[in-house]
Design brief:
Elements (H helix, E strand, L loop, with lengths): L1 E3 H4 L3 E3 L5 H10 L3 E7 L7 E11 L7 E8 L2 E7 L9 E5 L4 E2 L3 E2 L3 E3 L2 E3 L2 E2 L36 E6 L10 H10 L3 E3 L17 E4 L4 E10 L9 H9 L7 H13 L4 E4 L7 E6 L5 E3 L5 E3 L5 E4 L5 E4 L3 E2 L12 E8 L1 H11 L4 H8 L6 H16 L2 E2 L3 E3 L9 E3 L2 H7 L5 H10 L3 E5 L2 E5 L10 H12 L21 H15 L3 E2 L5 E2 L1 H6 L21 E2 L4 H13 L8 E14 L2 E14 L14 H14 L8 E3 L6 E11 L2 E9 L1 H6 L10 E6 L3 H4 L14 E10 L4 H11 L8 E10 L8 E11 L7 H19 L2 E2 L2
Parallel strand pairs: 15-18, 30-33
Antiparallel strand pairs: 1-13, 2-14, 3-13, 4-5, 4-7, 5-6, 7-12, 8-9, 10-11, 16-24, 16-25, 16-26, 17-24, 18-21, 19-20, 21-22, 22-23, 27-29, 28-29, 31-32, 33-34, 34-38, 35-36, 36-37, 37-38, 39-41, 39-42, 40-41
Helix pairs in contact: 3-10, 5-8, 6-7, 9-11, 12-15, 18-19
Amino acid sequence: MKLVLSWLTDYLELNPGTTPEALAAGLVQLGHEVDGIHTTAPAFTHVVVGKVRERVPHPNAERLGVCQVEIAPGEVKQIVCGAPNARAGLTVAVALPGAVLPGDFKIKSSKIRDVLSDGMICSVKELGLGDEHNGIWELTTDAAVGTPLPAILPPPEVVLEVAVTPNRGDCLSHLGLARDLAALGLGTLKPLPALTVQNDDGTFAVQAKIEGGACLQLNLIPLAGLTANAPSPALIQQRLVAAGQRPKNALVDVTTYVMLALGQPLHAYDADRLAGTTLTATQAQAGQAFAGLTGSHHTLAAADVIVTDASGAALGLAGILGGASSAITDTTTRVVLEAAVWDPVQIALSGQRHQLHTDAKARFERGIDPALAPYALQYAAQLLQQWAGGTVGKLATAGAGVPAPEPIRYHPAFFTKYIGVSVPNDRQQQILTTLGFGIREIQAGWLVMPPTWRTYMATPEDLTEEVLRVVGYETVPHQLPTSSPAQFGVAGEAVTLDRRARKALAGAGFTELLTYSFIGQDAANAYANGHTPLLQLANPLAQTDMTTLRPSLLPGVLTALAKNFANSDLGPAPVLQLAEVGKAFRPVGDKTGETLMAAGVLAHTGGRHWQQAVAVPEAFAAKGAALRVLEALGAPVASGTTVAEAPAHYHPGRSGTFSIGPFVLAHFGELHPTQRAALEIPASAGPLAVFELYLEPLLKLSAKPRSWQPSPFPPVKRDVSLLVAETVPAAAVLATLTKASKNLPHGTQLQAEVFDRYSGAQVPGGQVALGLALTLQSPEKTLTEAEVQAILAPLLAAVQSAHAATLRG
């Protein structure tokens, strides 16, 4: 919400000397964040009022003209200009050589197609005063040529960028923020502008009608005889621009102006484009087509609420978007203004259904002041009549509106009991009264009536919050609650595991991500690994990519990777490693099952140094990373097994699954080519190495700690090569060696690693040669060659027996 200071003073008489900084501090105290303060002062120099005396075609360019522009009495400069509206007699804004326009655009004399141009005739956008740039700015001023342009512009506006929280829809207006600031004592609230509009019986009449319960009140008022395409007053345009809006004409601007002023969204219909004179708020027909003002097209659902005329066509999606069929045009002279009160929940659901986010929706779904709608409508009609002439017809209303809020029983002593700070009764009464609450004393305290714009206020706790935010949260003393030491327990095992997993991934070189738990339906299906049905959201934040609870963390990690590539945010390392720890969701009966997981990706970026050539990560890089993390988390990795099977989103033949006993701990490998192709990642990144870890089994599988003392005696290393069937996993061979080494003589310890796997011309068909690096070390003595051979013999015999292996020479 952009709070324009001069606009605020229409509703709040500020205390003398109140600065924008004081207002910002007050808003923060009241619970509204202020993102910044800025002014709309023109950021330019050496720009003057000029008069075009002559325009002739450019000799070397069809679309350019050569203008003779008077920039001071008797002083003319030649300026080349391509604007279609540049013509003799026009008063313009001229930037002279040496001028610096917004965006650090410096003006100097130059030749354009061999013709000297000694300056620039400016558009509104080039001066930073608006968005209009279809031609040069046609000034309407009596100022003499040569007058500095800032001298004829309105004073700059001071604008506060206010972040209004979702529960305070009443503050999405200058009036709403004025109420809060008045309660804080920064000024005195002014009465609303008086209504002086005269309702003419001669103006055509309209009728309002409601079908169903989604519209609580529909107010309409007709206007006729308006000046077509009349501009809004300069002050109104200036305020709208300062508030981030783009003025168009009086008929359009009045709805935006009243919404930002009072918080009541309005809509204007071209009366000559309506069928009949009755507008009806009703439910849409399922499948009904609707074309919006923005050029968007929507297929409506039966749960949507629309406004129709006698034809039954949808003139607008209620409270969200007007329709193109009845939109205001440059020739409109008769309008019907609408101010309605819609069901907030209905508006929110329809907006999400059609992925529409408008200023009107933001206010309706958060709650407007239902009692203000008739006043806002007549105030808008009054302004429009002042700006564009014409006559105003009779107000037509349907619906009783929102019931009055229920009074709240409240005793001022409750504040001290609940908050722990004493605020005098009269001070509480003053604050609540200034905020619009009505107070009636009863025997047991007060009966407090919430204002119509705060209908959700219902409990004494709500009232204490209202008082406290005005008194100031900083007045509450810093004091911990009384508690026993046992009240604050140590985090549970699952929470501790989550934190340890994050540290383990960071230790393995991964950058941690935090992504949404919601993903799109297609992505969820692709990574579901057979876990169906998927868990759908009843009220998704977005219909395209946030409809389903994620069955895997990989979609979020891969989307983040794609964004890093798209923004070239890859860092200096030749391999980018991203990972996330979080919950995945799968249905368990009629409940939502959650499981703690981790997922990671390794992607080749190429690096930025000529000496940093690194191999593209592949399946074994993913496996190594996964096992490194599991080992850091205490998993007995040495006792695990690996099989060449993985979910369908992994590359077949370049992936695997790691398990310990009955527990699956990891899937790893290259991403399936189909999924890889769906990502907007350059082909130079190669295949993507990914892994998924199941963390909760680790609560049952943590390795038992054992005492260990370094041996003072040297280790002995031997390399052996075994021929085994190509179907025998290397992990199975290592497991056999580990099992056979449990009772070696002299307390000798064995460490075995696979360093090579070869198949080719020198190996019989159907077999592979496994190169094993064996390390033996005794804590008691230096092993002799004879002792080494005696130790190795039963180990190799166990492998030969278990896997039909033969020792290569």
